[in-house]
Amino acid sequence: MVDEELPRTRLAQVMKQRRMTLRDLRRRFEAITGNEMSERQAYRWFNGEVKGRPYSHSQAVLEQIFGESAAHLLGPPHGSGLVRHPRTLGPGAEPLDHEQSDRQRQVIVAAARRARDFLSRMEVPNVGTESLDQLTDDVRRLTVEYQQRPLAELLADMSETQHKIFELLEGRQKPAQARDLHLLAGVASGLMARASHDTGASDEALTHARVAFNAADYAGHDGLKAWARGLQSLIAYWAGRYTDSVRYAEQGAEFADRSRNTSSVWLASGKARSLAALGKYDEAQCALERAAEAHERVQRDDLDELGGFCTFNRPRQLYYAAETFSWSGTAAADQTEKFALEAINAYEAADPSDRAFGDEAGTRCALAISRISRGEFEGAAEAMEAVMELPTAQRTHGVIVAVQHVQRHLGQVTGETRVVDELSDSMTTFAAQRLALPQ
What we know:
The chain is mainly α. It has three domains: 1-79 and 107-113, 434 Repressor (Amino-terminal Domain), CATH 1.10.260; 125-261, Serine Threonine Protein Phosphatase 5, Tetratricopeptide repeat (Alpha Horseshoe); 313-439, Serine Threonine Protein Phosphatase 5, Tetratricopeptide repeat. 68% of the residues lie in helices and 0% in strands. It contains 20 helices and no strands. It has helices at residues 10-17, 22-33, 39-47, 56-66, 70-73, 98-122, 129-145, 155-169, 175-198, 202-219, 222-238, 242-259, 263-277, 281-296, 314-326, 333-349, 357-373, 377-388, 397-410, 418-432. The model is unreliable at 80-93 (pLDDT under 50). InterPro entries: TPR-like_helical_dom_sf. This is XRE family transcriptional regulator. It comes from Amycolatopsis panacis.
């Protein structure tokens, strides 16, 4: 090792004894995990510049390399293995009793270790800046990927991330870190609510959504409170509980008015389509107008910056408008088609991170309904082509219900044609093969 100072950690001490460099440590770590360790991270471990503990998998790798617990390796050095600078004895001085010196040093080190453990329990946060940044990156990735990949590929990662955040919140953090962790806990719980909803488990979905709202309350985050109410409104809508959906949207309005993030547009848009489902078309139109006004005065916040499902973008707003008008049938068929086509074009032109297969399927279902209402059955079949091509793993509860809405309109058609029969059969087959996670 190039550093000739006394080691500050047991890890540095052992590495000196084994003549290991930081590069050696990084190579061993990468050989075991397949992941690269940054030079900065290795130095922080070596020099004792970390607060709390690394992730459990990193601790396991350290223990595998050195055969000692990670807690000891990242703690102070042991007395018997210290590297000491030689001292010159003055005239008449007695030679040092190294055995006695080592025992004294071990007592001091042990006392310091106990003090360090006490401090970590009482004052030092159990999560550092890098750990919090990593969790934020994990949640941000999941909010985007959730809209684009099959649930079965993400569910374990989502559940583990939520659990990891919950575990950290059981410890101690500085106020700012606790606020950030509660924000992440709210989003992670919201994702689990969506996962439950997409498998048709509405009750479990609402439980996770309530956790999301409570986390928002602890964080003092009005934008997250509004988002959680929007999530509850969405779950109730697809469960056919339209009155509850309206109620949740109204409960979120006060938080949306204070935060003015994109959840304000979501709540108004969600309320509009639920009112339309209840046959309250004039009120639904007013709600759409409020959504448009909210869009004009949006102030994006840290929740919006997570992206994906955490922000209500323009394509989703157009989709909700199309679905709202689709409940009016023939009377609003032109408006339904107009907004549906605008939404489809907006999604196709959007950044890949803003795409959402479920919402895009819902948009095409609304377009099909507008064309069925006008007797344009071939156009309806064309609109449904991309939906019918969704793999079983992406046939979520919301997608299936949207397809069933199309079926309901198709069932009202008299004088059926071959196109109508084929479209009806294809939707029946599609709905029978829906998302089912492995048991």
